[in-house]
Amino acid sequence: MRFEISKVLDAIEARLTTDPALARAVVDMSEIIRYADLDGGRPASSVRLGLVLDALGLRFAEENVPVYVVVPRGLLSDTDLTSNERMVIRRWADDGKVEVVPQLDGRVFEAADLLGVPVLTRSRADRERERYPWVDEPGRLLAAVAGEGGTTVLVPRVGRNEPPRPPERSAMGDRLLARVWSCPEPNCASYGSGGDPDSFFADMRTFTSPVSQPPPALRGGVPTCPRHGARLKDAGQRAAVEVLSVRIDGVIRRRFVVSTDEPVVVGRAPEGSGVMLGQWLTDDARKWISRGHVKFTLRPDGTLTVQDVSTNGSGVRPGGSADDDTRLTLRRGETRTLGPEDVVELYANVNVGRASMWATGGVAQPQSVMGEAPTMALRKFER
């Protein structure tokens, strides 16, 4: 059973992010793990984060929806969790996959304000209302509750029958996220410089790319490292980014970021940090799509281009048109500038476009991170 629980935690890990461009919601892990009514199990269980992640996927009708998790430091030694759970959360913290803070002190709502995303909470946020008036807007606070058949769903705390307005990043968030920040603690996973390269553990450390740094905390109006409490140094302009979505057979499978610092290759199984599609492709699509098929580049002027690097070629559908007569063929080595609603077609129904193009993820039942959870795992989890 421990092995199965570990696989659930691995699946959860794949949905964790502190990247401002990818996070779709913010959550306090110390609150979520105590939602015992969702499963009738132990007083605290980190696996409940998986239930909430599944609910977030249902709300967006999208696969692989990432979430920004804030962890108060005390949770790392909370004996209501098993030793294995505490170890996994520490690893997530050390790798920068979750944000650890000494005390919450409103950090969950601050992060949501700076990122422009909802908060997953059952709280009414009474203490935060004066500072963040948006907590009274429909859809900005989403509570995880047990729905029909025991499925966890997210219910708006305000305006359940009102269509939510898309949240917007605050002006302060725009300013902070336009800069790269440096923490005086060299081993800081979020804002560190990498520490001593000759250290025995240098190759084991994980650091956040400058383009993916989380928003700093503000202490007295000063940008501060949320984990170490140290004043951050402005290290210069942050690279611009564009968020793209992979859409296969009408379903958004994942989002990814292209920055002016680094192009991104998408294909069946590209090398390095490219976007791999192979696990979602049909046999015919796998035969057609090259390991590295197309390369996306964001230029300093904000122009997004696509270059075909494949064997069989690709295409561009201007404005996302389904009309084959307007489809533009791209042969190996050819590059095209993409308009705001242009869609790149690697194979029939295998598309890449700007994430803002598609209002829904196109799937009624996203794949669950709880797929590996054994029956009654949450109720009988041996320490």
From TrEMBL:
Keyword Oxidoreductase: no
Gene3D superfamilies from the UniProt entry: 2.60.200.20
Key words, A-Z: Phosphoprotein
Domain FHA, chain residue ranges per copy: 264-316
PROSITE patterns, alphabetized: FHA_DOMAIN
Superkingdom field: Bacteria
Annotated coiled-coil segments of the chain: none
Record's protein name: FHA domain-containing protein
Organism field: Paractinoplanes atraurantiacus
